[in-house]
Amino acid sequence: MKNKNNKTIWFVIILFIILLASFTYVKYVDSENIIRIIQNSSFSPIFYILFVAGQVLLFPIPGQFAGIAGGYFFGYILGTLYSIIGLTIGSYVAFYLSRKFGKPFVEKIDKKDKIKHFEKLIKDKEESILFLVLLLPFMPDDLISFIAGLTKIKTSNFILITIIGRLPGFFFLNLVGAGLSESGSKFIFLMIFIVVVSIILFLYRNPLEKYFMGLIERQKNAK
Prior knowledge:
The protein is mainly alpha-helical. It has one domain. It has helices spanning 2-28, 31-40, 44-57, 63-101, 103-106, 112-122, 126-135, 141-148, 155-182, 187-203, 205-222. Helix 7 packs parallel to helix 9 (155-182). The longest helix has 39 residues, at 63-101. It is globular. The relative contact order is 0.14.
């Protein structure tokens, strides 16, 4: 219970910092000029790709932020491309670390029973179940990259499944971000939207995850 409360507190703090920084940004910074600089800078894609890769490894960073921001600054085509590159890099690093250091390392990341449950779920049908976990919404996609490293799945297969499985979700997020940019929405509204969505997903993450987990388990047992 204490661990759960600590996670909730940190989640709220991070979202508050994002929102506060956004208000400060809009009030004291020439936002249109900054956005123009980001869009025209040759280094911006590199920083964004590294940010997305870091999001995979650092769970507190909302994944919705990365996807929508990509579409907002780069458009839905380039934003999706950069997102997938970053996701692939981050997922591979997570996969590599868990495969190198083993289960004790992964168990430091999340609860042991949760890791054991997903490990059991993926077992015997690694590729197909891993694809479903990455494809369906509200699943712990980043944690799954670590757990996949504990299985016998080939690295090349894991990378391919990661790209195909996460492409639809991040394409949609980038599409939303691009729509906000093209409609002339202010940066602050983008941040508020992300914060609201993040809070909703955080509050209902357990029942949503449980529902989609049930779908995957039924799919696995049906084969």
